Amino acid sequence: MVFSTYTFILMFLPITFFGYRVLSLLKNSFYGKLWLVLASLYFYAQGSGKFIGIFIAIVLFNYFVGTMIVRAKESGRGFLAGLMLTIGLIQNVGCLGYYKYTNFFLENVNAALGRPYTLMEIALPLGISFFTFQLIAYLVDCYRGKVDEFSFINFLVFTTFFPQLVVGPIVHHGEIIPQLEEKSQRLFNKDNFMLGLFLFSIGAAKKVSLADPLTTFAQGYYANIAAGDFYTAWIAVLAYTISYYFDLSGYADMAIGLGLMFNVKLPENFNSPYKARNFREYWQRWHMTLSRFLSDYIFRGVYKRGSGSFNFYSAVMVTFLVSGIWHGAGWQFVIWGVLNGVFVCASHFMSRNKLAMPFAIAWTLTFAGVVGTRILFVSDDIGQTMDVIRMLFDFHQFAGLGLKEIFTDTVTYAAYHLYTIVLLIVASCIAFFFKNTGEIKQNFKPNFKYALASALLLGLALSQMEEVSDFLYFQF
């Protein structure tokens, strides 16, 4: 089930919300939380029904392992705690590896050894990359002594809560569990509900009105690159870059808004990443909960403070290599991770050596790097990446033309693709110059102005929901 659909907005959400509100009136909070868990499992089953049993088994297994780790640590049995952590990590990484990377492994074995291994028909479970990282963080925190025992129902809400289950934000237990244990959590909060509705409306408009049309244009080009030209290549590449931001940040806005409706505050996930002056800052602003996970559980596992620059830069490269592999099963994702690691290392090197470029130059180089790595990210393979890059700098169609003819061709092309170009310009201006959602909500007040804005944005989104369009990160 997708947030930006009539089924979700007009049926699932009202039923889930009012059911929770009614059950929350009972003295025992267990029933309201159970309702949330069941609704979340139903939500997940609509997108990955064949996997629902395995998903439940994974959640239960991780609760058992986490509890064993906590109890072993409390009783001083460090070996048992370490053993249980190892078992839990093997289960989570192994499950992710099987579903996501088995065929990638077989493809490379076939290519390297000439073996005729037949690829397996393995459907990728919805959201497995996200909830796997969340469970790994939970187990590691148990081992680090950051987790106290809490009720089973709170754990189930923490792991299955539908707003963040599929595409994040990736949350820590310490951000969610304390909220669930507060008595005020199950009381209706008008301010939270209105802010949640406002954020959800912004996210829906981002997704449906901006991201989807730009993504459709870009995907049309990538589906038949040979039929494209210089103009189409540039618009498609820029459209994909912008649409990925609005698609994923739109999902985050909707998820955070939904959480607030149920009095659960989810962490921010985007902070105007395209305003960054270097790649270090870019990754502090883009998909921040993923960056936080990679920093806390990968980078800090490799880097030892005071061990020197080589260890530091090596840890950065390992972190982004893991990020690349996590994002997808293909060599283009490995190279994407390596390139991002190199760019982040370069940013750290300049900062450590007090080197700086004028902001305009630094921003231009950073955004060019973002566009370039996005081409690699969205391509089917490295060959397609090279085809796109060649077309971006293929000027043969202008051979023999004067400036007047080139100008006429450009204007004619723009006229035929006016809607996409205007939409791209509007979306770019919003991304580069306007306040982001986190900044806007700081001044939020539940008054008529914001109610009207919510109605207009949600109405705009609803009027354009002609067909179901998955979020781009559903494939990860």
Structure description:
The structure is a single chain. This protein is mainly α and 476 residues long. It has 2 domains: 6-188, no CATH class; 209-475, no CATH class. It has 20 helices and no strands. The protein has helices at 6-23, 30-48, 52-74, 78-113, 128-143, 152-160, 162-165, 173-181, 190-223, 230-261, 279-285, 288-302, 309-327, 331-352, 359-378, 382-392, 403-416, 418-433, 437-441, 448-463. The mean pLDDT is 90.
| Number of contiguous helices | 20
- Structural class by secondary-structure content: mainly alpha
Instruction: Work out the number of β strands.
Output: 0
Relative helix content: over 70%
Shape: globular
SSE order, one letter for each helix or strand: HHHHHHHHHHHHHHHHHHHH
Q: Largest sheet, if any? A: none
Overall tally of domains: 2
Could you tell me the strand content as a percent range? under 5%
Overall average pLDDT: 90
Task: Identify low-pLDDT runs.
Answer: none
What is the C-alpha radius of gyration, as a whole number of Å?
Answer: 24 Å
List the helices and strands and how they pair.
Blueprint: H1 6-23, H2 30-48, H3 52-74, H4 78-113, H5 128-143, H6 152-160, H7 162-165, H8 173-181, H9 190-223, H10 230-261, H11 279-285, H12 288-302, H13 309-327, H14 331-352, H15 359-378, H16 382-392, H17 403-416, H18 418-433, H19 437-441, H20 448-463
